[in-house]
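Supplementary Data S3. Sequence and structure tokens for construct A.
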Amino acid sequence: MKIGISACLMGYKYRYDGTHRKNEELLDILKGHELIPVCPELCSGFSVPHDPIELKGDRAYLKDGSDVTDKLMKGCDLSLEKIKNCDLVILKTKSPSCGYKKIYDGSFSGKLIDGNGMFARSCLENNIRVFSENDLNSIREYTAQ
């Protein structure tokens, strides 16, 4: 299978704070598959590190109130182009771009809400199967087909 995956889950230090979230268990499950690392925020031109971004509705904002929706959407579009022929994509939860099922509420207070990041939404709208790194059992089953 060809699988798109948030680059930070593979160990790339692309997160807003310059860290990664390498997930060894996930990578073990995915052995033998073609992995396509993707980072919409990096594709958007945000530096690493950069100020945190959160979503309020369909808009993306920096903590200082700057609207970065158009910039982030550009990176989401470029990332979608990279993974459009993948069988599935595995995205990092809570991210304003990759977040799947849970994102921060836009108040920069650490409060989580149900929702999807901008890239996750694009994937779903384009009928790409989406999982988060928390869906290990489902990923194991899906990739064993």
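Construct B, processed identically:
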Amino acid sequence: MIALVQRVSQARVEIDGRVRGAIGRGLLLLVCAEPDDSDAIADRLVDKVLKLRVFADDAGKMNLDLDAVAGGLLVVSQFTLAADTSSGNRPGFSGAARPELGKRLYERVLASAAARHGVVASGEFGADMQVHLVNDGPVTIPLVVRG
């Protein structure tokens, strides 16, 4: 799975002008499933994200995870993370999982996160979404989790 994690002071996702999911301080997780991904990989991604120590401790050092700061997690599907621009200027997306697998694994990420963390919000798989965020830092971390 390919993911992009952004530390935010606030974030929300809207669909057709209506807020679908929103958090205050926490992490925005953009997620893309790849063809060979599995439930185990989705679970490992969630584990990694929840344990990321990207929030400042009292000394100002990035040393705290999401639970330690009682932060929220906003999960949004984003197949464009698999964009291939190696030949030409128009991106190709053959590296992304087919929609059926992508949706199943996105829902697995959501379920796994909700089972382990108190505040989890989401977008909607396949929807045209507008994501609003205030990147805190800025802190943006790419993650790739594979079998």
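Residues 97 and 129 are 19 Å apart (CA to CA). The mean pLDDT is 97.
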